[in-house]
Amino acid sequence: MPDIWDVHCHFPRNFDGTGEPDYARLLDERADALRAVGVVKASLLSGGRMGGPRPGPSYEECLEYAKRHEDLWVPSAVVDPEEMTGRDIKRLFEQGYRGLKMIGVRRAYDDYKYFGVYEMAEELGMPILMHMGVIGGGVDYQIMHPRRDAKAVEALKRMAAMGRNQGRDVSATRMRPFHMDTIANNFPNLKLIGAHMGGTGNYDEAASVTRWRHNVFLDLSGGDTIERHAVERRLVGHEIGVEKITWGSDCASDEIAMHVEHMEQVFEQSGLTEDQKHRIRYANAAEIFGYLQPTFAGE
User: Does residue 162 surpass a pLDDT of 70?
Assistant: First the structure.
């Protein structure tokens, strides 16, 4: 079974805010699901209160839970650059975090206000995974619809109970691949991973940035649509080089095996060699996080 690095694995959280989940059990289940398909390292996206109060354990509590599978987890802190400074990032690093995640920012990713966070992340060698494009999930994704799909009705009711039908200050235009170009030009040694191949609607933009900026990468997470577009639009190994792509689950534990299978189908349909598959499954992420040292042609 080939080794895989999951760069986009969320700490299990209680999204509806009811009751207190058994986080230890949920994390064990996620670890078991990952190991079963060959994942040997997973960037565990932990803590944070992006966009206001958010259910789930604190940064410190997440690190304690992560000790249950220290060989697997690479802790990555979900941070809000609106509220945090470089000093906060350094404190997270000292606690044990080795990467960062951003989503739902209140300004464009490349706003000067956020540069202190990027400067410290670069200094400490902490890669940043950045959500790209529209934020959504469940009934937000309108291939399913309550008029035709009973599961969509359940999802709609669940989202309404969570308050998701209220206004929120979120915009896909603040989370575009071109923002990574600005950041990469100012912080050339900072490693950035744009989630979801740059986001649907942003593929050309994402391909352009990854093509020209040495330390900008993308992940293949995002579900069936991203996986389908990766083949239909000749993204993997064609518009976007295999050295610039990583894999992430970004899903529930019981869906991980399915998306690993989809990844392998993308590889086959894109005509990748075994070495190219290995780069996307594991090697690119291992180099991004410093577990492997890059080698160059002629060495």
Answer: no
Question: What pLDDT does residue 165 have?
Answer: 64
- pLDDT tens-digit series, residues 192-211: 999 999 999 999 999 999 99
Question: Measured between alpha carbons, how far is residue 248 from residues 39, 56, 69, 228, 263 in Å?
Answer: 10, 21, 18, 15, 10
Q: Using CA atoms, how far apart are residues 72 and 91, in angstroms rounded to an integer?
A: 22
Residue 2: partners with Cβ closer than 8 Å, 6 or more residues away: 38, 277, 278, 281, 282
**Cα distances (angstroms) measured from residue 80 to each of 86, 92, 118, 215:** 12, 13, 12, 22
Under CATH, which number does the domain 4-135+171-288 receive?
Answer: 3.20.20.140
- Give the residue among 140, 131, 141, 167 at the shortest CA–CA distance from 52: 167
Residue 53 predicted with pLDDT over 60: no
Q: Any idea where the domains of the chain sit in the sequence? A: 4-135+171-288, 139-169
Closest CA to 7 of 222, 203, 228, 178: 222
Helix (H, G, I), strand (E, B) or coil at 46: strand
Range with the poorest average pLDDT among 13-17, 177-181, 283-287: 13-17
Which candidate, 64, 184, 194, places its Cα nearest to that of 121? 184
From CA 183, how far away is CA 112, in angstroms rounded? 10
209 half-sphere exposure, CB direction, 13 A CA radius:
27
Segment 217-240 shows an average pLDDT of: 95
